[in-house]
């Protein structure tokens, strides 16, 4: 049974502050976001390639990693990445490979991507009922204002290939503490980069910030220039990290890995040389203090829901006061908010205002079959260690 929450003037003011600070963040990183857009990679400059190939750049170290796993580089270039044989599906944390295939992610292919959704059953949701707060009242997702680069510049879409075909999640540009002002880091969900206990790393992982910047309809985008879809170009993950908890315990419904369902990407542009943060003009800090649900205050979730009644073309958001959610007594509790966003919003950042600064505090992980709420992991010491390792090892590339 849903229990509505009281939302007083204080909550409304906190929500307004969150929206205002996020919008300011989008233009506070050295000049306006529109000026930054002029420095973006030329989306039309990518050499066109079909789904089976295209131009592939395979750095020496990546080629060596492929060879270490018995994978022929030329075979991979010619479409060998489509081989999802379970015995050869790269699984371990050190196994990630993701050569750039220019022109693979065309607008039509992006739009065909299926949502990467993790839904829990009523039985799952009630497994640790005594440790969870009452189910929140649904909060109807609201479309973000356009253009997105002025209102939620750090948010975008994460595309990848799975054995079932092209898939899509959401992600957020985050700051790199060891490379200030030049971050190439993106925060998303673990299930958007790795299949969990029954699989391995997904392939052809790309981040597209401010996807469909002006929120055009499908009809309006027919025949549109690629820059309308990807105003800042495509950013390929040259490394990805997710938690051991997700790799070992993640499942189709989230499973025991849901409480550890987070990931960090290090990306590079398909075209261009500036960092992601410099190109987009914004990035958010991550709050690794792991505040309790009661301490988190008003929290907003942003993303691109793609399952009906949404179509993945527009960015949406939900604001609510989170409660505790637990899948089992032996697992860390998660945050839960009311929200009607569906699959495709997975991996999208959850933001809160702390000390006047908007910070990423979680990401969308799981939700119920009726799409009335979302749950995301609390980010603590383990998440911070993963982030710091990514920053120190790959951040300067």
Quick recap of the structure?
With 397 residues, the protein is of the alpha+beta class.
Keywords for this entry:
397 residues, 13 helices, 6-stranded antiparallel beta barrel, 20 strands, disordered N terminus, alpha+beta, Thrombin, subunit H, single chain, 6-stranded mixed beta sheet
The residue fraction in helices comes out at: 10-25%
The strand order across the widest sheet is 6-7-8-11-10-9
Structure classification: alpha+beta
Unreliably modeled segments = 1-11, 26-58
Q: What percent strand?
A: 15-25%
Give the strand tally.
20
Instruction: Give the rounded overall mean pLDDT.
Output: 83
For the largest beta-sheet, the strand count, sense and barrel status come to: 6 strands, antiparallel, barrel
Overall 3D geometry? globular
CATH topology (fold) name: Thrombin, subunit H
Structural domains: how many? 1
First-residue to last-residue Cα separation? 50 Å
Whole-angstrom Rg: 20 Å
Instruction: Label the CATH architecture.
Output: Beta Barrel
CATH structural class:
Mainly Beta
By DSSP (H or I, 4+ residues per run), the number of helices equals 13
């Amino acid at each position: 049974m849903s229990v509505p929450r009281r939302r007083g003037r204080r909550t409304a003011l906190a929500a307004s502050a969150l929206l205002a600070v996020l919008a300011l963040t989008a233009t506070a990183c050295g000049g306006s976001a529109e000026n930054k857009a002029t420095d973006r990679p030329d989306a039309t400059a990518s050499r066109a390639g079909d789904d089976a190939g295209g131009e592939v750049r395979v750095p020496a170290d990546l080629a060596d990693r492929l060879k270490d796993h018995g994978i022929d580089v030329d075979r991979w270039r010619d479409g060998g990445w489509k081989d999802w044989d379970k015995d050869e599906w790269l699984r371990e944390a050190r196994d990630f490979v993701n050569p750039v295939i220019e022109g693979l992610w065309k607008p039509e292919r992006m739009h065909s991507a299926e949502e990467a959704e993790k839904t829990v059953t009523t039985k799952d949701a009630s497994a640790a009922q005594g440790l969870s707060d009452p189910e929140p009242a649904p909060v109807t997702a609201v479309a973000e204002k356009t253009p997105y680069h002025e209102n939620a510049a750090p948010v975008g879409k994460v595309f990848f290939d799975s054995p079932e075909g092209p898939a899509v999640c959401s992600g957020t540009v985050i700051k790199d503490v060891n490379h200030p002002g030049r971050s190439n880091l993106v925060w998303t969900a673990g299930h958007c980069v790795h299949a969990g206990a029954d699989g391995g790393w997904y392939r052809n992982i790309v981040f597209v910030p401010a996807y469909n910047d002006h929120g055009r309809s499908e009809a309006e985008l027919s025949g549109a220039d690629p820059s309308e879809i990807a105003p800042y170009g495509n950013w390929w993950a040259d490394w990805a990290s997710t938690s051991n908890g997700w790799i070992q315990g993640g499942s189709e419904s989230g499973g025991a890995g849901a409480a550890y369902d987070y990931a960090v990407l290090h990306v590079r542009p398909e075209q261009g040389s500036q960092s992601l943060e410099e190109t987009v003009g914004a990035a958010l800090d991550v709050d690794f203090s792991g505040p309790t649900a009661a301490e988190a205050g008003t929290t907003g979730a942003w993303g691109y829901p793609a399952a009906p009644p949404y179509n993945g073309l527009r960015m949406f958001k939900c604001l609510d006061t989170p409660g505790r959610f637990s899948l089992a007594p032996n697992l860390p509790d998660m945050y839960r908010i009311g929200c009607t966003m569906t699959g495709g919003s997975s991996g999208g950042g959850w933001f809160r205002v702390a000390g006047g600064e908007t910070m990423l505090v979680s990401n969308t992980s799981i939700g119920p079959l009726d799409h009335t709420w979302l749950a995301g992991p609390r980010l603590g010491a383990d998440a911070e260690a993963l982030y710091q390792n990514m920053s120190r090892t790959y951040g300067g590339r």
